[in-house]
Amino acid sequence: MTTAAPRGLRRGRPPGRSRRDDRNGLLLTAPTLLVVLIASIIPLVLVVVFAFSEIRLVDIPRLGTEPIEWTLDNFRRALGNPSFWQALGTTLLYATLAMIGSVGVGLVLALALRRPFRGRGVVRALLLVPYVLPVIAAVTIWQTMLNPQYGIVNAVGREFLGWPSAVGFLNTTTAEVWGIPIPLSLLVVVCFEIWTSAPLSFLFITARLQGVAPSIEEAAALDGANSRQITTRIVLPQLKGVILLLCLLRFIWTFQSFSEIYLLTEGAGGTQVMALKVYTELVTRADIGSAAAYGLLMSVVLVALLVVYIVLARRKVDVE
């Protein structure tokens, strides 16, 4: 009798402030956690389940009613398939060239337009047009220009450059230039990616250039440094961080590119990248397990890149 009353009082006591804060925090973050769970966690778990099981599109209605047979056959077939390694090599080459080109072009444009001149705002606005242009509109422009029958590129080439016949830029695997085989269609999609993504690099680098103190360059000029020395020894070292970040982001984004390449070539002419390989396995062959395995192997490459970037970033912080 003497102990019942205190227990009753403890049950009736209002929660403390910290408990109320915890409860309110959980209530506020619950919608976000629910969205993340539905949009990210569950699809990722399903991809892992599909990758380690033999499931095709026709098996979807029976999913959950029959036990899953776990297997590594999807990965064995993928790693033993020469087309996988060819697609991986094409993807790495495409992502590397597009990354170097987009960051390099953005850097050159940012340095060239750094000093004020009349009409600089208009030039900057025109440079951003390829980036804000819808992908389907940009693809249509390029397909029209490169068309073998009525494209302006072939017309100029045959009229002024002496081309014996029209060139199918979007379906020719290789073209020999002075006896050297050139992966023509792959270079076209790389140039398209550079054209559309270089403005973003230009914006990033221009924003960082605003933080470079003019007094340092003025002091270097007073000490006798010329423009090339100021650029290479003062300006570029301060852009190293943003350039590394851009290289990583551009590589990750181009490594996953699908819509641009599919709309331009549909994978013809040696442009079968990993994302198109996943699409082919899923839609053409209706093999969900194989497509999921290809997707996971793509993720492994990207995760490795992220780990390298995090290690480099942490090392830089430790040095600072």
TrEMBL record:
CDD domains: TM_PBP2. The chain crosses the membrane at residues 26-52, 92-113, 125-145, 180-205, 234-253, 291-312. Residues 1-23 are annotated as: Disordered. Residues 88-309 form the ABC transmembrane type-1 domain. It is found in: Cell membrane. It is a multi-pass membrane protein. Keywords: Cell membrane, Membrane, Transmembrane, Transmembrane helix, Transport. Residues 8-17 have a biased composition (Basic residues). One of its GO terms (cellular component) is plasma membrane. SUPFAM superfamilies: MetI-like. One of its GO terms (biological process) is transmembrane transport. The keyword Transport applies. Pfam families: BPD_transp_1. Belongs to the binding-protein-dependent transport system permease family. PANTHER family: BLL4140 PROTEIN, DIACETYLCHITOBIOSE UPTAKE SYSTEM PERMEASE PROTEIN DASB. This is Sugar ABC transporter permease. It comes from Agromyces sp. G08B096.
